[in-house]
């Protein structure tokens, strides 16, 4: 009889098939789509503010969940468009939803089934290809009583045949793992679209511009953020390991330029410091950020500005 010999054991490598798919996050402005995207991806790739209509283009964030790659499409909030930019944003949102493998509709628990939410649900029936799975994510559940949450869940599922309903808090992280695990199982089998360590498919120039625009949006008056855009005009990776970034802030009026600059240039200085710090953290290298403010009265009607934002100018017609 031989003595038992301990053999080294290695955990078996996961041999389950790879999965990859696109998941569109839709909802009214400020429903929490950008917060959810950033939570899923584990880094800030989408602008987050308390102001509505801040996400302008379809921002893709990449989340790895086991053998599944979930590519989130954070669409602009769906609302009643009034201007060319509004119409292009709404078209981008529905375009992102129609192209997705799975759609997640986010609604705010405390606001419930608003007229805007009802309009989105009605549009889902017409604008989404037959067979596309749609999940409901009720966000900000800490702001509502349990009995009211149950009634909201029942009424929403009576209005539309959602594949699943999730109770989440995107800000606090509650319920996020459950939603992620379900999506990981539901996306189609197939090879990954992006390298495993890539978190977004936006060019770094655009991510940097979005970060600066977020700081502007948080700082400026209510009416101003939708009258400005930020473009990265120059990007230089230097031999010393730092990066020089030159950005232009386009505004529609001379008065807006004065607001952004502030007395003695103090406001833009603070915005520049905040944006530079965030970009440097994201890039993990020193950043030299230079901001200019230019007045272009008709930038909202310029095709080039829409291309820089990742929107289709024709969608605004």
UniProtKB/TrEMBL annotation:
Major site of localization recorded for this protein: cytoplasm
Gene designation per UniProt: era
Designated name of the protein: GTPase Era
Any one GO MF annotation of this record: small ribosomal subunit rRNA binding
Domain KH type-2 residue range list: 220-297
Positions of region (G5): 168-170
Organism of provenance: Paragemmobacter aquarius
Start and end residues of each Era-type G domain: 19-189
Annotated residues for binding of GTP: 27-34, 74-78, 139-142
Stretch list, region G2: 53-57
């Amino acid at each position: 009889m031989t003595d038992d010999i301990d053999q080294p054991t290695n955990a078996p490598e996961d041999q389950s098939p790879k999965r990859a798919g696109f998941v569109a996050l839709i909802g009214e402005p400020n429903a929490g789509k950008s917060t959810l995207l950033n939570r899923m991806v584990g880094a800030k790739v989408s602008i987050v503010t308390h102001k509505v209509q801040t996400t302008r283009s379809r921002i893709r964030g990449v989340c790895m969940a086991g053998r599944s790659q979930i590519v989130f499409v954070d669409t602009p909030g769906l609302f009643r468009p009034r201007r060319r930019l509004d119409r292009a944003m709404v078209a981008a949102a529905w375009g992102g939803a129609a192209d997705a493998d799975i759609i997640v509709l986010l609604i705010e628990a405390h606001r419930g089934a608003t007229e805007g939410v009802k309009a989105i649900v009605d549009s889902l029936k017409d604008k989404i290809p037959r067979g596309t799975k749609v999940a409901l994510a009720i966000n900000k559940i800490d702001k509502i009583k349990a009995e009211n949450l149950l009634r909201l869940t029942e009424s929403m599922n009576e209005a539309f045949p959602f594949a699943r309903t999730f109770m989440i808090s995107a800000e606090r992280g509650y319920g996020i793992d459950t939603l992620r695990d379900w999506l990981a199982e539901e996306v189609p089998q197939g090879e990954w679209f992006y390298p495993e360590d890539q978190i977004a498919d936006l060019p770094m120039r655009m991510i940097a511009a979005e970060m600066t625009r977020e700081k502007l949006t948080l700082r400026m008056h209510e009416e101003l953020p939708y009258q400005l855009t930020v473009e990265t005009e120059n990007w230089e990776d230097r031999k010393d390991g730092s990066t020089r970034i030159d950005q232009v802030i386009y505004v529609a009026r001379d008065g807006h330029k004065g607001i952004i600059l502030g007395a003695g240039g103090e406001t833009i200085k603070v915005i520049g410091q905040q944006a530079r710090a965030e970009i440097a953290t994201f890039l993990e290298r020193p950043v030299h950020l230079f901001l200019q403010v230019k007045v272009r009265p008709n930038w909202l009607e310029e095709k080039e500005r829409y291309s820089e934002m990742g929107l289709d100018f024709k969608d605004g017609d």
